[in-house]
Amino acid sequence: MVINKNVSLKDYTSYKTGGNALYFADCISSDDVYYALKFACDNNLSYEVIGGGSNLLVSDDGYNGLIVCTKNLNRYIINTGKNILKCGAGIVLADLVLYACNHSLSGMEAMAGIPGSTGGACKMNAGAFNQEIKDTLLTVTFMNKDGSITTLENQEVGFGYRKSEALKDKIVLSAEFLYKNDKTSEELLNIRKEILEKRKEKQPLHKPSCGSVFKRPEGNYAGTLIEKCGLKGYSIGGAVVSTKHANFILNENNATSSDIYNLIQHVIKEVKSQTGITLEPEVRLIGFNN
Ligand SMILES: Cc1cc2nc3c(=O)[nH]c(=O)nc-3n(C[C@H](O)[C@H](O)[C@H](O)COP(=O)(O)OP(=O)(O)OC[C@H]3O[C@@H](n4cnc5c(N)ncnc54)[C@H](O)[C@@H]3O)c2cc1C
Fold this sequence. Notes:
Elements: E1 3-8, E2 20-26, H1 30-42, E3 47-50, E4 56-58, E5 63-69, E6 77-79, E7 84-88, H2 93-102, H3 118-124, E8 127-128, E9 131-132, H4 133-136, E10 137-143, E11 149-153, E12 159-160, E13 163-164, E14 171-178, H5 185-202, H6 222-228, E15 235-236, E16 239-241, E17 249-251, H7 257-275, E18 284-286
Parallel strand pairs: 2-5, 3-5, 4-18
Antiparallel strand pairs: 1-2, 6-7, 7-14, 8-9, 10-11, 10-14, 12-13, 15-16, 16-17
Helix pairs in contact: 2-5
The chain binds flavin-adenine dinucleotide.
């Protein structure tokens, strides 16, 4: 595997912003991941893992280490025929959802429309409309920093709302999902279609974003709080709080990552001062010094 130098991360994030990675490894196989980790270790480099880049904000200064990209990693789906799909980390989540629906496997259909990779979805415990990755995940296999490989069962992962404790600093290689077969493929495809329509109706999908910027605070909704604080449409540089869905910050007009970052900080500050609630970002930061 070739490790490239000075790769623009703009092309690897849904925000389309950010600087260069000093080193960049596009991993296709688990061996590639092993090699990338060894390269980082041998050269005393820090590293960050990225998948589809749909939940990332990369600093305009880029990342002064190695980016281990898993977007193309282990691109396979194996249907065991026992309501279990085995799937590589680089499989696009939306493709896995569609595959499951087409094969009358239920449990993921409400996650239609969540962008990004299956590995990233495991790490984030992605979810929507009352379904989360943890509801179908049977096992997850990952590489540790030292190159060893571990498989954990669902209960061992420490899944919570948008978190997976045991996957901290790990690189997801593959996962197995257990589905129900209580619905026909026609029913599942219809649910999927309805979900995609709801998303189109409620979310500003016309401009680059990372989806919901903030986690849902307990007993509340980030979007509702942001809207109540009069921040819909508020902008810094090319970044704007969406007027359609206040928990989306859009790259409206050639925003820089600094514009987006500063707007995130502004929203946190305003919501705190007006409501007393501290919003916690769901978006992951790379290359910022915090
Ligand atoms: C329009 C839009 C709508 C969205 N809607 C939703 C939604 O409804 N629900 C929801 O939960 N999210 C949503 N998101 C956010 C995002 O799509 C999810 O968090 C997604 O699961 C991230 O996957 P990714 O592959 O893009 O991960 P990335 O953005 O690349 O990375 C996210 C995190 O996962 C880690 N990671 C990525 N790949 C791996 C791997 N192989 N091993 C270990 N760690 C890894 C990264 O280090 C980072 O911490 C939305 C985003 C957009 C742009």
